[in-house]
Amino acid sequence: MNERKLKVILAAQQVFQEKGIIATSVQDILTAAGISKGTFYNYFTSKNECLLAILEMANEESITRRRKLLLGQDRTDKTILALQIVTRAHVDRERNLLPIYEAVFFSKDDEMRTFVRKQYLSEISWLSGRLLEVYGPESGPYRVDGAVMLVGMMQHIHHFVKIGGREKNTFNYDQLVPFTIRRLDDIMAGMIAGEDKLLGKALLEKLTYTDNEDIKDVIMKELRLMLTRFEKNREEKGIEFVSFLLEELVTGNCGPTILESVTISFEAHYSSTMYAEEISKLCGQINILANLRSKGALNTDN
Q: Fewer Cβ close by (within 10 Å): the C or N end of the chain?
């Protein structure tokens, strides 16, 4: 991301936090960032798009940190899973985004509600995939139920603590997440032993399939455009990376671990170039789709 756009996003984030989403105007953002209206609209089509860019930037940071935590580690390690889950809360706190998330969650704006829906489904999809790795193949039919209940437990405990008046600085996600995972151990064992599921993965597939296929189409289109630029500029390494990713999206021949290594190398190779922001975003989306596919999240069986 270029420095000027980042400056606008950070300035907007500060204004949203101070004045609230509804009370903040585009002019407030222009004043805080010290830019013209033309510059703002060169980056964003609306105030809402700027707001969602703030949240998407935090989401991409969470995805990147989660991938790095898992790389080279035992994928069945519950301690790693807990660290990955906590990472999102840490990013949100570092950026002071909780008030913004709350405002977006309760917004009646269609664009905001769509964003919240996609974020929630993406989190459940990712978590259900990780539960399959942690609890083994026999957990397959029950992993979506487990993911929904785990998220629900964390949310309700957090809500209870909040309305109970405990100081927010004393609330420790590093304790909450391992605690709820320990509770999930018993829940998953009970569902597996009793062959007892409520949701299965069919409902999640129905909710996410269209979104994921749309994203895949967009990713492939952007990769082809990037390949054209690399070919024009004779970027041999870039051509090699993009060609591999395009083939992988079509065939799915390699596993998520190999794909993660490739995307990390791709990002590192172009980290100081004009392509850095675009490549980072694409690689994050590619890894999400690859993980869903490897866990069977896009299959039609239950």
A: C
* Chain centre distance of CA 170: 26
Q: State how many domains the chain has.
A: 3
Q: Where are the alpha helices (DSSP H) in the chain?
A: 3-19, 26-33, 37-43, 47-70, 78-94, 98-105, 110-135, 143-163, 173-194, 202-232, 236-251, 256-269, 276-294
Q: Report the distance separating Cα 231 and Cα 72, nearest Å.
A: 33
192-241 residue pLDDT tens: 999 999 987 766 665 554 455 566 777 888 899 999 999 998 989 999 99
Whether residues 71 and 147 share a domain: the answer is yes
**Cβ count near 7 (within 10 Å):** 15
CB atoms within 10 A of CB 292: 23
Is residue 199 domain-resident? Answer: no
State the residue for tokens 């994928």. 75
Q: How far apart are CA 15 and CA 97, in angstroms?
A: 12
3-state secondary structure of 65: helix
Residues 188 and 88 in one domain: yes
DSSP letters along 232-282, please?
Answer: HTT-HHHHHHHHHHHHHHHH--S-HHHHHHHHHHHHHHTTTSTTHHHHHHH
CATH code for position 26 = 1.10.10.60
Query: pTM (2 decimals)?
Result: 0.67
The DSSP output letter for 164 is T
Q: What percentage of the chain carries pLDDT values higher than 90?
A: 28
The candidate with the shortest Cα–Cα distance to 192, out of 236, 243, 134, 248, is: 134
Helices 3-19 & 98-105 angle (0-180, nearest 10): 70
- Look up residue 173 and give its amino acid: Y
